[in-house]
Amino acid sequence: MDQLNQINKDHLPRHIGVIMDGNGRWAQGQGKPRVFGHHSAVEAVRATVEGCAELGVDCLSLYAFSTENWSRPEMEVGALMQLLVDTIGSEMETLLKNNIRLRAIGDTSKLPEATRDALAFGIANTADNKGMELILALNYSGKWDLTQAIRRVAGEVAAGRLDATTIDEAIIDQQLSTREFPDPELIIRTSGEHRLSNFFLWQAAYAEFYFSPVFWPEFRKPDLYAAILDFQQRERRFGKTSEQLT
Q1: Contact (CB, 8 A) for 23 and 244
Q2: pLDDT digits (tens, 9 = 90+) for 71-82
Q3: For a tag site, which of 83, 118, 181, 206 has the least CB within 10 Å?
Q4: What is the distance between the terminal CA atoms of the chain, rounded to a whole angstrom?
């Protein structure tokens, strides 16, 4: 039986986050510039998006550009921003065919105008789609998300609209950029690295992690299926004992 047929469609992670890692190292391993790896990764994005949509996953978040990525060489950052513009345009047919709604989280105000315009076009053009939510994390980091959430809560307290003693997890959840989405249940990181890299620090409290040795440009549907199958074999106890789950 192949991987796809082994997946239990009734036990899918509602929200999958992907740290798309290894583009530059993959390209350099082939004697190519790092930018070549980013361009080659578009097929991995397409395969992962289509694979999740076909299975019936509710939300897919792709860590596309972190707040720390601005420190990369200017040429590489510029190429990444242009690639976002090109990819949103070229993949619109795929999004519409699969009934996918494009969303974005992060401080997008800092992105170049052309990138913001392409993103706004993609979001508006898919706004009526009722299938999977595709969330691009752009100029995003977990620390940024928590910082802006804390500022909002502090503003509510200062304005007298919130009693500081009543602040709980639910109030913080409602101030995060992901407040419209369920917390990720599965986070996949490619290229063999084993860290969060400032992604979903609050939201990943009870996520399952899957670290794939595959560099992101080579990631395809079978790799996605392997991650989901691994997730489905795990016992998610949320602090309870195994006996309490039966």
Answers
A1: no
A2: 999 999 999 999
A3: 206
A4: 28
- Per the rule left: phi > 0, alpha: psi between -120 and 50, beta: everything else, 59 is beta
pLDDT tens figures, 32-43 = 999 999 999 999
Q: Is the dihedral of CA 45, 50, 51, 55 positive or negative?
A: positive
Catalytic residues: 21, 69
Domains of the chain, first to last: 17-232 (3.40.1180.10)
Quick: pLDDT tens for 210-234: 999 999 999 999 999 999 999 999 9
Angle CA 102–107–109, to nearest 5 = 90
Tokens of 38: 């980013």
Of 95, 93, 84, nearest in space to 60 by CA: 95
- The tally of CA atoms less than 13 A away on the side-chain side of residue 144 is 18
Looking up tokens 């996918």, which residue turns up?
100
Burial environment of residue 134 by CB neighbours within 10 A (0 to 12, 13 to 18, 19 or more) = buried
